[in-house]
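Subject: Protein entry, chain in single-letter code together with its fold tokens

Category: Structural biology, sequence-to-fold work with a learned token vocabulary.

Notation: Tokens come from a learned vocabulary of local backbone shapes, not from coordinates.

Start of record: The labelled sequence and token lines come straight after this line.
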Amino acid sequence: MVTIPWILLTYKVPPEPAAKRVALWRRLKAMGAIYLQNGVCVLPRTDDHVRQLKMLENDVTEMGGEAVLLETTSLDPGQQDKVVARFRADRDEQYREFLGRCGGFEAEIAKEIAKEKFTYAELEEEDIDLKKLQNWLEKIKSLDFYGATLAQEATKRLAACEALLEDYARRVFDTNRGR
């Protein structure tokens, strides 16, 4: 078994103002951190994570709180597996939400095809929505440190959305040819 090094952040911040506490939580979640319990989170040890967490440590101090950063590993494979499973579960939750949005995108295209609404304005709107899906999936993948189970399905679903938009675009071009 390969031992995975993690950076563990423990912190305690004043309860007020709540907005600062929530902003800190959001920043940690945006980095892909998982919480082991309140005020205790972990990330894989990378130079980028160390740098970002050191900046967060400074922010906690400026908020009047306390923070401790530690490099750590698990004591045994079972503990490591628990932590990795938590990372995967968090990413799978994001992938599920992404897949739901893909369903919405597919339904929207189907609705426009059913109405035979083949306009450039609609195509542009759908193209913007697809770009949002593409960017969102890239963001999730950048936080998928341990290969969540739904990653492949999300990638395939995005490819299907891209193909769907390509087909819709062809219909728009065919409908508007010569106008």
Observations:
- The longest strand covers residues 6-12.
- Residues 91-176 form one domain.
- The two ends are 65 Å apart (CA to CA).
